[in-house]
Amino acid sequence: MEQRRTPLAWVESPLQLLGAAEYAAHLGRPIAVAYRLTGPQMPTTMQQLLERGALFSSVAPYFGIPWGLLRDQSDWVIGDGFSGQFRMAAAVLRPRSITLLDDGDMSIHLASALLGRTEFARRDTREGGLTTVLGRRARDRMLRLARGERLTMFSAFADAAEVSALPARQIRLERNEFTWLRANVRPVRLPSTRVVLGSANVVDGLLAESDYLAWLRGVTADGPVSYLPHRREHGGQLARVGAIEGVTVVDAGIPAELALAGTVDALDIVMMRSSASTTLRAVLEGTGSTVRVEGPAVPAR
User: Fold this and answer.
1) pLDDT for 147
2) Fewer CB atoms near the end CB (10 Å): N or C, the chain?
C-alpha cells in the first residue's frame, strides 16, 4: 500500500488560507501550510484559523518560493494557479498531484485557461517571454496530472459554467461549501446589521475615490452601516470613509467570511461587484442574511 502523504498548501491571500482550512476538513486529515506574508491579514487570519481548530499539521510563513517544503511534499494545494512562482516551481520540481484552491473569481478564469478557452495568463494581463513559456508548461503539467486523476479544483464557484465543465477534461471538481467555517464560528460584534463590504476598486485605480465616497453616502441615506474594509484599503481612505456620517469602520483584520460566519442577526450586506458575493452567500446560508451587489460601474477585471 502506498504511504499516505501530507499535502502542502501554498497560499498567498487570506481567502486562500481559509480555503486551505476548508480543504483540510474536507480531506479529513491535517495538511501542512506555507503562507506568504503579503500583508497584516495573513498572520491574523492564520491565528484565527488555528484557534478554531484548523487541521494544519505545520505552518510556515515565507517570502519567495518555499523550495524545501515543496520538494519534501509533492502533493501540492495551490492558492494562485497563475503565480509566476508557482509556474517556476512546477517546472523544476514536477509535483505528484495538485489541488487548486479559490483565488476569488480568478478561479473561474483559471478554469477557462485549463479548458483551453483562453491563454494561460491572468485576465487583462499581457505576458511574454519566459513567463508565457512557464505558463504553458504549468498548464501542460496540470493536464498531464488530470489524465492520471491527480488534478483537482476545490471551489466555491462550482456552479460557474467554466468551473462545472472541468470534469469533462478529467479535472476533479470538489465543492467548497464552507462547512468547516460554519461549524467553527466566532462572529465579530457589529454596531449595525446593515453592512457595507469595502472594495479595492479605488486602490486598483478602477474608480475615483470621490465617486466611491459618494456611493457610500448614498448607502447611508437609508440608515447607519458597519463598514468592513477591504484588506488593501489604505489608512487615508479609511479615515475619509469613517468620517462619513452613519459609517462605523469595523476593521477585524480578517476576511469578511471569517468575521461574519455564524452571525445571530440577519445581515443586510451591500457591496460592489466582487467574488465575495458568492462566498458570503455560501457562508451565511440559513441565517436570513441578504447580499446585494450595487454601486458605480467599474471595468471588468
Assistant:
1) 96
2) N
Residue 301 reports pLDDT greater than 60:
no
The greatest distance separating any two alpha carbons of the chain, rounded to the nearest whole angstrom, comes to: 65
How far apart are alpha carbons 287 and 8 in whole angstroms?
Answer: 33
DSSP state of 105: B
How far is 233 from 200, CA to CA, in rounded Å? 6
Cβ–Cβ under 8 Å, residues 108 and 148: no
Fold of the domain built from segment(s) 8-182: Rossmann fold (3.40.50)
Using CA atoms, how far apart are residues 256 and 188, in angstroms rounded to an integer?
Answer: 10
Helices in the chain by DSSP H: which ranges?
Answer: 14-27, 41-51, 67-72, 84-93, 106-114, 129-147, 161-164, 179-183, 209-220, 235-242, 256-260, 276-283
Break the chain into its structural domains and give their ranges: 8-182, 185-293
β 8-11/31-36 pair status:
parallel
Q: What is the DSSP string of 29-65?
A: S-EEEEEE--STHHHHHHHHHHHTT--EEEEEEESS-
If one counts every other C-beta atom within 10 angstroms of the C-beta of residue 264, the result is 7
Q: Which tens digits make up the pLDDT trace of 152-196?
A: 999 999 999 999 999 999 999 999 999 999 999 999 999 999 999
Contact 19, 79 (CB under 8 A): yes
Dihedral of CA 29/40/253/105: which sign?
negative
Contact 18, 46 (CB under 8 A): no
Domains 8-182 and 185-293 share a fold: yes
The domain made up of 185-293 has a fold known as Rossmann fold (3.40.50)
